[in-house]
Every structure is written in structure tokens, then in C-alpha cells.
Task: inverse folding
């Protein structure tokens, strides 16, 4: 058989070999096509098409050196053939000879309108940092008649991200999904939509905070649940749900919610709240661990220091407590609201007075309680003011403050009891008796009634009760963070970047930009935006394998510190 085949091959003409080679080429049987073209060229080597077809078959066999030799032969015979130049450009591209590839492909593109050609020119432009040119080629590739080159459109979308044009990138990716719903850009589009929904939720979150302040806790819960329906990863909504559960003394539920916040965003603020809740659940060790974790994540977290100060105060470890009250007073609190700053300073100054025995701290605390009363005519703040006067031995002003508290909340038992103690110490025994009698009419508890009856018996016998008003440090209101809009955006900027999502980070940074006025910070924002543009492009290249650049994370952290934002 081999002998017969050899004889048969010798009898074949040039035309026979070309016909057979063309057949194999059309069928994609490139190795056979190469054999036949070589046989044909042995008989006649002056037809440039044969050399071109040989080069084309070798190209598909990834034998690029031989392919280059063949296409050079074709070009020697027909140097102006644009299709030969096109193939030569492709071969150089595969050989990694990018400059030569660009030269021939660019020349070919003047007459050949081919989606693959334009896409490769786009890829080469990207390699040399000519992104505007690359975008032009990718869009040309996609917009070719009957083109379905979604890959080119995806690359165009990535360049839009590199330019920071989120809207055009979103439109490009959406166009891809209309034609291929399972395309890899689906994750990117979902990310963009989720971030926009989260940003739009700020007004709802702010309304929820207002409701908490106004003690409309059920209304606030509804708001935060609404936000979670829109953005299931709204860590701040779980934080506020934890706060509401803590206010209702449902500490296990509060712990569940704060753990959910932490699972979404490993944030110092949330560990401080977890410490508060664990302490109220009786887990002192767990609370201390949570507070220390909060401090490790952010050494400027006043809530963590305050939680530790209160914990050690109640344990009777006054030196430790005093040191942590110092930490609160030393911490720069720019991000916090005026109300939160005043409350933390107020209780910390009282704490310093009671852990050191220095009355001057009470005097310093007075200006903060006055500020809080000006912000909100609350019975709590009038009560604390009365307590401070009491500790300073000023029973007259303590009496006036407690009376002001009762004008806001006439049936508050703690205030009535403290008022009675002040009246007794002022020598106004009959008024003290009248006050205790009023308490009996309000409270319907056998144990409490017996306690008051014993007090009344002593007073009527003109015997001292030796009662003291308990420290306000044993009745601290639930503390929680109330971020302004800039810090809300900033914390989410950090969250998204820390969670390897530079697109979400970029969108939040764009919103922060509109609230920045200082030139120094504006320059930093512009620098971060530029780096995030590159990170977005890199994210689209890697998707699931993407990891945020540590240097960008550190720069974002520095920006947050300059903005006074607490993580």
C-alpha cells in the first residue's frame, strides 16, 4: 500500500496537491493541509496564495516560526496584499512581537473591517497604556455588522471603569447580560446595583435614627428591616437593631444582631457594642475581650474605652477604671455628634471624680450636662445635673434640678427617691415624707412598699435613714454611634475595599468627594480615586481571585482618619 501511495503521489500534479490542501484547510485538518501545500510548493512556488494558506495552517498549528517564514514568502511575491499583512501581524502577535504586530495589523485595519482585528488592536493598545485608543478599537469590534463580540464589549466596559465612568461601564455590562445572562460581568452589575441601593438607603437609616432618639423603637425597627430588604448586607442596620434590642433588654437578641454586623464588616464599632451586650449578659471576660478587639482594630474608639471604664468601675477596680476614663477624655471625637461627645465626656468626668475623689471633675462635668440639657430638655440630663450638685453638697440646686426632671417626667421613681434624699439632707423631713408617700401611690409592689414604709417610719421618728443617691454610673443609657453622612459613606468605602470590592469603594468615594472642602483632603481623594480606577480594572480581570491592594487600603484608612471617621 505504501508503495502504491508513493507512486500515486509522484503522479499528482501541482493542481492536485493544491486542491487536496484546500480541502483539508476548509475542513480544519491543518496538519494534512500543511503536508499538501508543501508538496504543491515543491512543484511550483510562485503562487503567493499557496504560501499564505500554508502560513495560515501553520498559524493554527501554533508553529509560528514556520508560519512567519511562509507569510514572508507570500509577501515577497505580493508585498501590497493587505490580507497577507493581516496574517503576518497575527503571527507576530502570537510570537509576542507586539510592536511589529501593531505595525502590520494597523495597516491591515485601514481596509479590513474585522471584529477580531479590532479586538487585537485594542489589546495591544492596552499593553502600551493607550486606553482611549483601545476603547475605540473594542467598540469598533463590537459594533461591526452582525458582530456578537461580547468579549470586546466587556473589555470596553473595563476601560470605562479605568476612566472612572461607572455609568458607561454599567450600560456596557448590562448590554452584555441582555445577550448572555450568565456572562461573568453579572457579578459586577449586581455589585453596582447593590451599592447604589445601599447609598439610597441612607435617608431611611437617618429616619430610623431619628425614631430611636424619639423613642419610636418599633417604627425604627420597621425602617431598618426595610433597608435590609433592599440591602441584605447592611451591617449598620443590624447594628441599630442590636441597639433597639439592648434598649428593650433583650440581650441575647442584641448579641445575635451585633454578631451579624460583625460577620458582614469586621468593625471596631461593632465589637465595642458587643462588649456592652456581653457585659449585660454577665459575661465579663467576653466583654473585656470584645472591647480589646475593638481597640485593636481602632485605638481611637471611645465606646470601647468607656465600656471598659464602666466595667471596672462596677467591679470596684477604680484605678483601672480611672485610666480608661482618661482614654475617653483623651480621644479625639470629631466624628461623633455633639450629643454623643457631651454624654461621653460627662460620664467620664463623673467617673474621674468618683475614682479619684477630686471634686473639680464634677465642676468640669457641669458644662457638658448643661450642653445636653440645651440640646434636649430630658429628665435624664436634669437628673444627672441634680446628682452632680448632690455630690458637691449643693442640695438647694440639686433640689431644683430634680424638680426640673420631674416636670418632664413626673412619675419617675428614681428622681422622686433622689429628691426625697436631698430633702432629708436639707433638713426638710416633712417634705421628704410627702415625697415618699407620693412614691407609694405610684408603685404597686409589696417589696417596694415595705422598703418605703421602713424609710417613712424612720423619718417620722426623726431618725436618719443614712440613704445616699446611687452613682449615675450604674445607670448609663444605651450608647450607640450616630454617623454623619460623610462618615457613613467613608465607613462603607472602607468596608467595600476591605471586602475586595473596589467598584463599591469607588462609588462611595465619589459621593464623599462632594462633601470635601479642604484642599489637602481633596488631593488625597483624587489620588485614591485614580488608584481605585486601576483596582476596578484589575478586579474585572481577576473577579473571584481579586485581592485589594494593601497600599490602597492603608491610604483609605489614612483618609478616614483625616475625616475623623471611626471604623
Result:
Amino acid at each position: 500500500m505504501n508503495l502504491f501511495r508513493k507512486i500515486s503521489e509522484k503522479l499528482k500534479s501541482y493542481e492536485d496537491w493544491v486542491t487536496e490542501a484546500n480541502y483539508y484547510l476548509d475542513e480544519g485538518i491543518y496538519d494534512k493541509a500543511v503536508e499538501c501545500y508543501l508538496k504543491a510548493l515543491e512543484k511550483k512556488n510562485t503562487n503567493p496564495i499557496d504560501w499564505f494558506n500554508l502560513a495560515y495552517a501553520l498559524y493554527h498549528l501554533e508553529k509560528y516560526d514556520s508560519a512567519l517564514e511562509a507569510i514572508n514568502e507570500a509577501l515577497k511575491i505580493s508585498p501590497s496584499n493587505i490580507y497577507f499583512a493581516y496574517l503576518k501581524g497575527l503571527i507576530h502577535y502570537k510570537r509576542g512581537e507586539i510592536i511589529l504586530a501593531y505595525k502590520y495589523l494597523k495597516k491591515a485595519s485601514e481596509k479590513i473591517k474585522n471584529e477580531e482585528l479590532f479586538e487585537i488592536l485594542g489589546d495591544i493598545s492596552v499593553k502600551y497604556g493607550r486606553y482611549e485608543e483601545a476603547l475605540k478599537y473594542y467598540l469598533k469590534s463590537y459594533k461591526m455588522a452582525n458582530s456578537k463580540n461580547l468579549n470586546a464589549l466587556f473589555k470596553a466596559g473595563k476601560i470605562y471603569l479605568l476612566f472612572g465612568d461607572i455609568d458607561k461601564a454599567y450600560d456596557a455590562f448590562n448590554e452584555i447580560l441582555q445577550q448572555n445572562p450568565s456572562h461573568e460581568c453579572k457579578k459586577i452589575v449586581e455589585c453596582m446595583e447593590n451599592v447604589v441601593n445601599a447609598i439610597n438607603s441612607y435617608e431611611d437609616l437617618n429616619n430610623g435614627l431619628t425614631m430611636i432618639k424619639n423613642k419610636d423603637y418599633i417604627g425604627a425597627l420597621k425602617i431598618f428591616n426595610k433597608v435590609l430588604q433592599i440591602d441584605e448586607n447592611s451591617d449598620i442596620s443590624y447594628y441599630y437593631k442590636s441597639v433597639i434590642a439592648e434598649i428593650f433588654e433583650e440581650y441575647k437578641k442584641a448579641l445575635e444582631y451585633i454578631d451579624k454586623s460583625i460577620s458582614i464588616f469586621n468593625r471596631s464599632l461593632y465589637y465595642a457594642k458587643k462588649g456592652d451586650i456581653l457585659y449585660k449578659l454577665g459575661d465579663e471576660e467576653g466583654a473585656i475581650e470584645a472591647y480589646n478587639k475593638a481597640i485593636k482594630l481602632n485605638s481611637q474608639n471611645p465606646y470601647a474605652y468607656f465600656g471598659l471604664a464602666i466595667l471596672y468601675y462596677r467591679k470596684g477596680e477604680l484605678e483601672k477604671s480611672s485610666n480608661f476614663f482618661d482614654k475617653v477624655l483623651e480621644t479625639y471625637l470629631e466624628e461623633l455628634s455633639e450629643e454623643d461627645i457631651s454624654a461621653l465626656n460627662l460620664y467620664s468626668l463623673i467617673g474621674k471624680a468618683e475614682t479619684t475623689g477630686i471634686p473639680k471633675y464634677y465642676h468640669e462635668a457641669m458644662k457638658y450636662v448643661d450642653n445636653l440639657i440645651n440640646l434636649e430638655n430630658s429628665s435624664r440630663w436634669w437628673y444627672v445635673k441634680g446628682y452632680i450638685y448632690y455630690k458637691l453638697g449643693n442640695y438647694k440646686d440639686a433640689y431644683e434640678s430634680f424638680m426640673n426632671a420631674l416636670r418632664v417626667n413626673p412619675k419617675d421613681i428614681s428622681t422622686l427617691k433622689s429628691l426625697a434624699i436631698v430633702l432629708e439632707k436639707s433638713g426638710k423631713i416633712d417634705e421628704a415624707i410627702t415625697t415618699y408617700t407620693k412614691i407609694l401611690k405610684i408603685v404597686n409592689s409589696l417589696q417596694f412598699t415595705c422598703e418605703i414604709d421602713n424609710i417613712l417610719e424612720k423619718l417620722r421618728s426623726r431618725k436618719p435613714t443614712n440613704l445616699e443617691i446611687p452613682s449615675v454610673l450604674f445607670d448609663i443609657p444605651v450608647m450607640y454611634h450616630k454617623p454623619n453622612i460623610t462618615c457613613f459613606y467613608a465607613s462603607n468605602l472602607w468596608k467595600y475595599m476591605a471586602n475586595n470590592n473596589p467598584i463599591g469603594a469607588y462609588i462611595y468615594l465619589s459621593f464623599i468627594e462632594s462633601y470635601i472642602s479642604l484642599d489637602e483632603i481633596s488631593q488625597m481623594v483624587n489620588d485614591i480615586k485614580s488608584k481605585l480606577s486601576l483596582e476596578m480594572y484589575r478586579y474585572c480581570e481577576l473577579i473571584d481571585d481579586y485581592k485589594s491592594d494593601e497600599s490602597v487600603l492603608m491610604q483609605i484608612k489614612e483618609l478616614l482618619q483625616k475625616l475623623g471617621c471611626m471604623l
